[in-house]
Amino acid sequence: MKNPRLNIRYYLSLLVAAMLFAACSDEETYTSSPASPLQFSEDTLKFDTVFTAIGSSTQWLKVFNPNTDGVRLATISLASGGRSGFYINVDGQSGNVFNNVEIAHKDSIFIFVEVNVDPTDDDSPVLIEDSIVFTHQSGARQYVQLRAYGQDVIILRQVCFDRDTTLAATRPFLIYDSLVVARGSTLTLSEGTNLYFHSKASLNVHGTLLSQGSLERPVMMRGDRLDRMFDYLPYDRLDSQWGGVWFAKESTGNVLDYTDIHSGSYGIYCEESSFDDYKLTMTNSIVHNVAGAGLSLNLCRVYVANSQISNANSYCIDMLGGYADFVHCTIAQFYPWKEYAGAVRLTNTRNDTITDLHRAAFYNCYITGAQEDEIYGQRAVESQFTDVEFNYHFENCVLATVIAEDDTNFVACTLDTLEHHADNFRTIDTDNYIYDFRLDSASVARSKASDRYLDSYPTDRYGVERKSGTVDAGCYQF
After folding, report:
1. Residue 311 backbone zone (phi > 0: left; psi -120 to 50: alpha; other: beta)
2. DSSP annotation string for 311-329
3. Which of 9, 87, 238, 348 is most buried (CB neighbours < 10 A)?
4. pLDDT class of 78 with cuts at 50, 70, 90
5. How is residue 424 annotated by DSSP?
């Protein structure tokens, strides 16, 4: 009879040997073969324009090893040695060169990349290039290109213009805190001037603002984030990127021509002022994509023509009392983010204020949106305030609203009865937040306006000619 203890020892020895073999077989092996390349999520990392001395947001690169063996890199490095302004982070460590980096089979690592561009003393953007070099132990190399444009800017921090000043369109202006125009002073913005506002910064005007853009070189006011929330979505398409333009009570005589104001917490806010002078005259301009009201008018006198006011979480136009004339305006409410107010609200009462709405007149305008009715009126109770004016007038307009049969304040107007109002325009893309409010060929607004303002506005906001008998409603001519 065999000794059972010897059998147990024998089987235990076999078990231990099997376990050791299994452990050895699971141990990662690394190849130095040049036929074992890595794969990258991008072959070129492209940064949007970067303001010099400010720095970029962080982008990332995924490096994947698809091979059956691990890959040990001799180095991961920047081709420039760090002189270009790019810098990288590998496995939580920052630097220009990383030695003996291992990537197990079917595994990956992430590399984070930023760029800080030194001032270039150039008014135009300057291309900055570099590359990440992956050097295998075999000596084989792989590259991922890095590319950015550096733009010199003029930084304004807590600036108050207390004398007449002109900002010329040389380099963009980057505004921190807020930009203030003092009472009695005039700030003139030359054509092509770009104002980039940091988060919550605003343009506060106590004096006068003259924004003198042109068709070819408009004045632009926007947020300062030039990067993207997602690959398809630049921050510039989001609202609340900065404050907005505030015209204080004492401010009058403001003029905006070919001026683009977008992506703010609000668009333009006009405080109460004397009716003797125009608070604001706005022509050929855009106010678009704001978290508050697009154009908030409070007991003042304004004139707006050939302009687009669109996509506001509050009303595109919110008017309390006063006088306002709108000629050839496109007022479109397709705000994409959540429930929103309508395109237009006219009122002579708000909170504890009861006042006269002397005149809200719309000529040759196109007022529409995603809802069936985009025009709202809020009127003081007549039995208590019989002498309070509530005067409105729509003439030769196309409107998304409901008109009472006996309402004589609507003259020669057309209702936007198209089932989907967005189909009237070239592009209403609420997934990617891209909007082009020029008219589609089948738009209900075509040839619905009168010739009354042909002499004053012979072309639309883009310079397209208007011809007698075929004038379209709104600021765009098909």
Report:
1. left
2. EESS-SEEEESEEEEEES-
3. 348
4. very high
5. G
Number of domains observed in the structure of the chain:
2
Six-digit token pair at 253? 């005589």
Q: What is the pLDDT of residue 11?
A: 45
Which residue reads 């595994």 in tokens? 107
Instruction: Work out the number of other CB atoms within 10 angstroms of the CB of residue 453.
Output: 18
- Please enumerate in sequence order all residues whose Cβ is within 8 A of that of 15, keeping only pairs 6 or more positions apart, or say none: none
The per-residue DSSP string of 51-99 comes to ETTT-PPPEEEEEE--SSSEEEEEEEEETTTT-SSEEEEETTEEESEEE
pLDDT reading at 6 higher than 60: no
Q: What was the pLDDT predicted at 385?
A: 58
Q: Which of 22-26, 185-189, 336-340 has the lowest mean pLDDT?
A: 22-26
- Counting every residue written for the chain, the total comes to 478
Residue 14 phi, psi dihedral angles, 5° rounding: -65, -40
Q: What's the gap between Cα 61 and its chain centre? A: 25
The verdict on 142 and 156 lying in the same domain is: no
In whole angstroms, what is the distance from residue 330 CA to residue 398 CA?
10
Domain hosting 382: range is 151-439
Residue 396: φ, ψ to 5° = 50, 40
Residue 380 and residue 403: Cα distance in Å, rounded? 20
- Structure-token pair, residue 257: 């021509």
pLDDT digits (tens, 9 = 90+) for 14-44: 444 444 444 444 578 888 887 789 999 999 9
**Is 235 found in the same domain as 223?**
yes
CA dihedral (74, 79, 82, 87) positive or negative: negative
Is 19 a member of any domain? no
